[in-house]
Amino acid sequence: MSKTEKTSNIPPANPADVESIDAIINAAYDGISGPAGKKRDWDRERSLYIPGARLIPLAMKAGAEDVDLAPHILDIEGFIARVEPFFEKEGFYEKEIARRTEQFGNIAHAWSTYESRHDPNDPEPFMRGINSIQLFNDGSRWWIVSIYWQQESAETPIPEEYL
């Protein structure tokens, strides 16, 4: 299967968004950020993810009464469906505050520490956490293969080395 066949259902990416690890991670954060009620550019976001990519928040297990966490595995469409109702009601601005990246050949892994605010001018974030981002370079661009993340909590503070 050619690259064109594999990605024909993916909107074309802005070359500047996928030219480097830094560019694609920044584009992913930028794409989900905006004021309440503002429709996000979902085609831009879709263009960053390889077919079959996964977005995996560590979330409460369905029916759990305590802090029983489990991966909630989504594709890009499932992620959009999950966050759109929240973005309709709340402003959401997420930005990277630190990153540790390792690369071998065409694969890379980034530990990306983030802060989330309802307004970019809020003095304090309402949430922080770490994204584990896996990336692939096909020789012409970078793709996000998966993002797996956990929010910070009192029981699980972000380690100093990730800040």
Describe this structure in words.
This protein is of the alpha+beta class and 163 residues long. It has one domain (13-153): Nuclear Transport Factor 2, Chain: A. The protein has five helices and six strands; from the N terminus they run ααααββαββββ. The chain has helices at residues 3-7, 15-18, 21-32, 42-46, 76-89; strands at residues 49-60, 69-71, 93-104, 107-117, 127-137, 142-151. The chain has a six-stranded mixed sheet, with helices on one face. The chain is globular, with a radius of gyration of 16 Å. 18% of the residues are buried. Mean pLDDT is 92; it is low at 1-5.
Order of helices and strands: HHHHEEHEEEE
Low-pLDDT stretches: 1-5
Strand elements, count = 6
Determine and state the CATH class. Alpha Beta
Alpha plus pi helix count: 5
Please list the strands of the largest sheet in the order they lie side by side: 2-1-6-5-4-3
Provide the structure class. alpha+beta
What fraction strand?
Answer: 35-45%
| CATH architecture verdict | Roll
> How many structurally independent domains?
1
- Please state the average pLDDT score: 92
Shape: globular
Oligomerization: single chain
Q: Biggest sheet, open or closed, and with what strands and sense?
A: 6 strands, mixed
- CATH fold category name: Nuclear Transport Factor 2, Chain: A
Keywords:
25% helix, Nuclear Transport Factor 2, Chain: A, alpha+beta, six-stranded mixed β-sheet, 163 residues, single chain, globular
In short:
This protein is an alpha+beta fold. The chain contains five helices and six strands; from the N terminus they run ααααββαββββ. β1 and β2 (69-71) form a beta hairpin.
